[in-house]
Specification:
Elements (H helix, E strand, L loop, with lengths): L2 E6 L17 E2 L2 E2 H11 L4 E6 L3 H8 L4 E4 L6 H9 L8 E6 L7 H13 L4 E7 L8 E5 L2 E6 L6 H4 L3 E10 H8 L15 H8 L4 E5 L2 H4 L5 H21 L3 E2 L5 E3 L4 E2 L4 E2 L3 E4 L3 E2 L4 E2 L3 E4 L2 E2 L4 E2 L3 E3 L1 E3 L4 E2 L4 E2 L3 E3 L4 E13 L4 E13 L4 E2 L4 E3 L9 E3 L4 E2 L4 E3 L2 E3 L4 E2 L4 E2 L8 E2 L11 H10 L1
Parallel strand pairs: 1-4, 1-6, 4-5, 7-11, 12-15, 13-16, 14-17, 15-18, 16-19, 17-20, 18-21, 19-22, 20-23, 21-24, 22-25, 23-26, 24-27, 25-27, 26-27, 27-28, 28-29, 28-31, 29-32, 30-33, 31-34, 32-35, 33-36, 35-37
Antiparallel strand pairs: 2-3, 6-10, 7-10, 8-9
The structure holds uridine-diphosphate-N-acetylglucosamine and calcium ion (CA).
């Protein structure tokens, strides 16, 4: 049997009060709609149709050719959206799973089981439902003698129906042929003047078809209509990701303050300290200690490395290296093995060779640094002349004296030293000591004379 999903994502999402389309709002490192699509694909659905309308081009830019698209130019309701989606399906028979681009918590496992039950029971429709404490805003599942007889939207409920706590998740499995037939008879005679997909249930039951329900937890069905709910689903997704990491052997000291994005990979026995944010495609090896208070975006870290109280963006750090506290690694930084990058050190577009020490108060930008180099406190690579950025090369075993300025482009050859306080503008030859500062002059008894002048 052909299996399809229709992912409804054409609505404006007014309640978000955002410039970003609701299905593209990020939660735990992915757009809401991507979580939905991942679940559909994970459940074995290969043909996924996303119904787009509001900010349609943004949606296409994000999902590219992973899915088929169907346009809904006017948002006339969820039933109307499904009608548009059906135009992308040419097959006559199969199962159609309707999902909502704003409900990212459904798991592939639950979806797979639900599809199985739906097909085995020979249902025309199976509605995924949840029991909640506060059903306000949701469509309610109305039952007669235990069987579902219809779904009533919040705005169409009577007093009795308002009390029903079993709600419609907005996710369903349908028999393709029967859905087609029911959609033809859908009307918009309701409080909102919209075509409701939920009305299909009553139509199918009227045809004498079998309609089932599949109850699951709220943790899988919560939808996002505003930023309060966005934070709620984000927290649930993050909790799942942190738990997954722990089950894979990562030590998370404080799961509540740890964020591990969906694309992040961490090796076993690495310890994540509190208030740490790992995001993008960050990969961390084994036996590392990351955090506290650290944010790494698209970074690759080796094994046995420590990063504390620091920020890293698109950078690579090798093995047995120590970063922080308070280091800032900007894009294109490659730090090798057994290196120390200490406090208030900023690195940008720089390659740092193994065994080098940059212990404190130093900026290294657009530079290639060799192995076993020692940076004195307060070194500044002067890489920018106000118009262009230039490159600095520091070869192996150099010693950069404290408070040196290295005015780029400049090369410090192998094993050379720069004297503390020097402003280096020219190449320093191999093994040389460069002193580029004025000599010290001592004016004898100067303070005594000064004091006397004041007294007079
Ligand atoms: C819908 C259900 C409700 C259910 C709830 C669960 C209907 C009529 N109601 O209500 O029973 O409890 O979801 O969250 O189906 N969309 C379109 N085109 C449209 C309208 C909506 O693509 O014309 C999309 C939206 O972008 C969104 C999804 O469909 O992703 C759901 O729409 P929304 O307006 O949020 O429906 P609810 O009022 O939440
Ligand atoms: Ca909704």
């Amino acid at each position: 049997m052909e299996l399809y999903s229709l992912i409804l994502a054409a609505g404006e999402g007014k309640r978000m009060k955002s410039k970003i389309a609701k299905p593209l709002q990020p939660a735990a490192g992915k757009a809401l709609v991507e979580w939905v699509l991942d679940a559909a694909e994970g459940a074995g659905i290969k043909r996924n149709v996303v119904i787009i309308g509001h900010k349609a081009e943004d949606m296409k830019d994000y999902l590219k050719d992973r899915v088929q698209y169907a346009y809904q130019y006017e948002q006339l309701g969820t039933g109307h959206a499904v009608m548009q989606g059906m135009t992308a399906i040419s097959e006559e028979e199969g199962t159609v799973v309707v999902l909502s681009g704003d409900s990212p918590l459904m798991t592939a496992e639950t979806l797979r089981t639900c599809i199985k039950v739906h097909e085995e029971e020979g249902c025309a429709a199976t509605v995924i439902t949840t029991v909640v404490d506060d059903p306000f805003g949701y469509g309610r599942i109305v039952r007669k003698e235990g069987e579902i007889c219809r779904i009533v939207e919040q705005k169409d409920t009577n007093e009795e129906e308002k009390q029903i706590c079993e709600i419609n998740s907005g996710m369903y499995c349908f028999d393709l042929k029967k859905l087609h037939s029911a959609l033809k008879r859908l009307t918009n005679e309701n409080a909102q003047g919209e075509y409701y997909i939920t009305d299909v249930i009553e139509i199918l039951l009227g045809d004498g078809e079998k309609v089932g329900t599949y109850q699951t937890a709220l943790e899988e069905t919560l939808g996002v209509n505003d930023k309060v709910q966005l934070a709620a689903v984000d927290a649930i997704l993050n909790r799942r990701l942190v738990k997954q990491a722990m089950l894979e052997g990562v030590t998370v000291v404080d799961p509540a303050t740890t964020r591990i994005g969906a694309g992040v990979k961490i090796g076993c026995d690495t310890v994540i300290q509190p208030n740490t944010i790992l995001e993008g495609k960050t990969v961390i090896g084994e036996d590392c200690e990351i955090g506290p208070n650290t944010r790494l975006t698209n970074c690759v870290i080796g094994n046995n490395t420590e990063v504390a109280f620091s920020v890293g963006i698109e950078s690579k750090i090798g093995d047995r290296t120590h970063v922080g506290p308070f280091a800032y690694l900007r894009p294109n930084t490659v730090v090798g093995d057994e290196i120390k990058v200490g406090d208030f050190v900023e690195l940008k577009n720089a390659t740092i060779g193994n065994g080098t020490k940059i212990a404190h108060l130093t900026y290294v930008g657009d530079a290639q640094v060799g192995e076993r180099v020692n940076f004195g406190c307060g070194t500044v690579v002067v890489n920018y002349d106000g118009v262009h950025k230039h490159k600095t090369i520091i070869e192996d075993d150099c010693f950069i004296g404290c408070n040196s300025n290295l005015v780029s482009p400049v090369t410090i050859k192998k094993g050379a030293y720069t004297a503390a306080g020097s402003t280096i503008t020219d190449m320093v030859p191999e093994g040389a000591l460069a002193i580029a500062r004025s000599r010290q002059v001592n004016k004898e008894s100067w303070t005594g004379k000064k004091r006397k002048q004041k007294e007079d």
